[in-house]
Amino acid sequence: MQIAPETFGKVAVMLGGNSAEREVSLSSGHAVLNALLTQNIDAHAFDPAERPLTDLLSEKFDRVLIMLHGRGGEDGSLQGALQQLNIPYTGSGVLGSALAMDKVHTKQIWQCLGLPTAKYKIAEKRHFDVGSCGAIMHELGNIVMVKPAREGSSIGMAKVTSAKQLETAVAKAFEYDRHVLIEQFIDGAEYTVAVLNGRVLPSIRMSTPHVFYDYSAKYQDNTTEYFCPSGLSDEREQRIAALSLQAFDALSCSGWGRLDFMQDKHGEFYLLEANTVPGMTEKSLVPKAAKAAGISFAELVVSILATSLESGA
Description:
EC 6.3.2.4, cytoplasm, six-stranded antiparallel sheet, cell shape, D_ala_D_ala
C-alpha cells in the first residue's frame, strides 16, 4: 500500500552518534536521507553527537528514523528517550533493542527456547581467570570466536585457535565491554536474513577471504562475495526463514532487522546474533536482500520509516 509522503510529517534521520560505529552510521544515515528526499518526504539529518534530543521538540519533528548503529542508538537508550519525548521512531522498542544488542543475553534467550546456537562461555572482566583458557578451548572445540557482548560491525572480535590467543583476544575485547562472549566456531557457510514488517526477505550467503566476516570485509574492501539467491534448497530456505522469525520474536524485536547464521557441514543452521538497526550503506546486506525480493532502495527505506507509525512498544 502506497503511503502519502505527508503522512510522515517532518522526519529526523538519526545518524552519527558517539559509538564505535559512528562512521558506518553516517554512511547509512546519509544514504537513507537521500532516499527519503527522492520520495518527497520532509526528512532532515540529526546527529545527537552534535545537538540535544530536545531539539526534536523545539524543531517540531513528527518522527525519527533511527540509523544510529551500536551503543546509544541500537541498545534501547535512544528508544527510551524518544518514548519519554513522545516521538514515534522506527524499529524495535526498548526491550527488543536492549536484548538484541547484548550477544550474551541473546544467546541465553535463544538457548532457553531451544533455538539452535553454538556452545559458548561468558568472560566477565572482574572475574576472568586466564588460567581457564586452555579448558575453555578444549570444551568449545579448540577454535572459538571472541566477541564483546555489546558491539556491532565485528568490532573487537577475533577468531582464535590456542589458549594464548584466547587470553590476548579476551583482553582486547575487554577494552570494549566488561562482558565477552566466547563462542564455539562453526566451520561452514555464513548467511544473513532480513526481516521487514513480518516478511522474511531472501537469505544471503557471504564468502570472504578474510579469517572471518570482519569490519574490513563488511565495509572497506571489495573481496567479499554476496550470493542472493544464496543457493539454499527451498526446504533450507524455509527453515532459515522460520528460524529468523522465531529468533526475532524471541527477543521482542519488531519492525525490521537482520539475523545472522552459520551453517555446519551437516547443513544445520546456528544463530549468531540479531541486529535491530542493520547497516544501510551501499555494501549493506538488507538492501541486497530487498533488491532480490523486487524492493528498491527507496521503497525499502519508506517501509522502514513506516514502522514508526506503530512504534512505542
